[in-house]
Amino acid sequence: MAQLLPPDPTALDHITAFRGLPPEVLAWLRQAGELHQYADGETVVLAGAPADKLLAVVRGGTHTQLPGDASARGFRLAPGDVGGLLPYSRLQFFPAQGVAVGETVLYELPSRHFPALEQVSPELVQRLVGIMNDRARDLVRTQERDDKLRALGKLSAGLSHELNNPAAAISRAAASLTTALQVIPNQLIELLASCPSAETVAAITALAVLPTELPPPLSALQAADREDELATWLEDHGCPDGYALAAGLLDAGLGVAALAPLAAQLPARARPAAFAWLSGHLTAARLTRDISEAAQRISTLVGDVKTYSHMDRALGPEKLAVTAGLDSTLHLFAHALREKNVHLTRAYAPNLPLITGQAASLNQVWTNLIDNALDALPATGGELMVRVEPCENCLVVGVQDNGTGISAEVLAHLFEPFYTTKPLGEGTGLGLDIARRIVQEHGGRLEVSSEPGRTEFTAWLPIS
Q: Fewer CB within 10 Å, N or C, the chain?
């Protein structure tokens, strides 16, 4: 329990911001404020408590860990530092719990004395406002960095899943391809041993090419019926393992109608070897295509990460296409979109002009807006629309969801620093403030409109 200490004429001498003040100002401060002593680890301020006092460290120190802060450092006040609520600050509630580090003595000035302080010492008020501005800049830099880390942390699980799928597909296809390649030479030997004519061999090899576009997928029942039909036909033409061959032939779009002319050219003894080699060759070709497509998917994901993080480019402003950053961000959210079964609509106007900006910073904005939209979507029937269109000398980027909407009361404070509707520890209330500041640094503005069933955040960015 904090202990109220008796007045100490020398206590304020340890506060950096108070040094050099006239004696009458120091006397007023001693009279208006109080000294409190805290044990090591004792709570100095509670998270969510009204921000109603200035704190200055006479001895010891305090440590505050902001919710969502990715660093282990937190925010510290050392002897001589000033914190808590400062004059002209918009802070209404303490965003996190602050605890004493070692035996700590704090000078505490209730905020109800701030109007009088402005009259007693405009110089001290100016100093405190300077401290507040410096600290706010440092906090914003830290929170912007941590916001990026949080975004990457949220995306990493989905990205890992997205990378694992094609990697697993490559592994499975490679194992199957190894088996297929071991059998194909023997199948070829058996085919040639049956001595088909050159014309017949040419007819076989003409079918041994995967079509550019694979046939449209069939329902499970349709696929089973076609496989039964082809397997029966193959067995009727002397192939004892019709079911084993049917899948590879059907995957390439070869059914009874396509194979019947070839069967008519083949001697009966050559048909088993011919169809076995054809099925094996087409299976190997399909597996090769599967490996190529999976590898391309991994390459695309790596490219999306590079585009998202802008790690392979200069950090300065450059001409860029807004849709490229939006697409890379949406690709990284692919797993989350699938998990919630979200219907995504990209409404991009054609021939969009470029803007000048920093891709990594803007991608942070898109991440924040898309992530908030996902949180707001209903459990089923979620719809997310991302639109980009020109309007006079700007590009308009809208992120719209069909969630429950934002109340007028929340809407009025939505862009205020530290304002959040999320449970304590799940949000700092700085995400939208950072997003708006980034858009403003690009010469634009960020707005929001909301009604039940429709919320849209709109960024207006100047065209290069």
A: N
List the structure tokens of 183: 């059998």
CB 368 within 8 A of CB 329: no
Domain chopping of the chain, boundaries: 3-120, 155-301, 314-462
Instruction: Just give the CATH number of 3-120.
Output: 2.60.120.10
Burial class from Cβ neighbours inside 10 Å (0-12, 13-18, 19+) for residue 18 reads buried
Q: Give the tens place of pLDDT for each residue, 271-330.
A: 888 888 888 888 888 888 888 878 887 877 777 676 666 544 545 678 889 998 898 888
Domain 3-120 shares a fold with domain 314-462: no
Cα–Cα distance measured from residue 57 to residue 296, given in angstroms and rounded to the nearest whole number: 58
**Least confident stretch, 21-25, 125-129, 151-155, 290-294:** 151-155
pTM above 0.85, yes or no: no
Closest alpha carbon to 346 in 295, 384, 313, 302: 384
- Using CA atoms, how far apart are residues 25 and 122, in angstroms rounded to an integer? 10
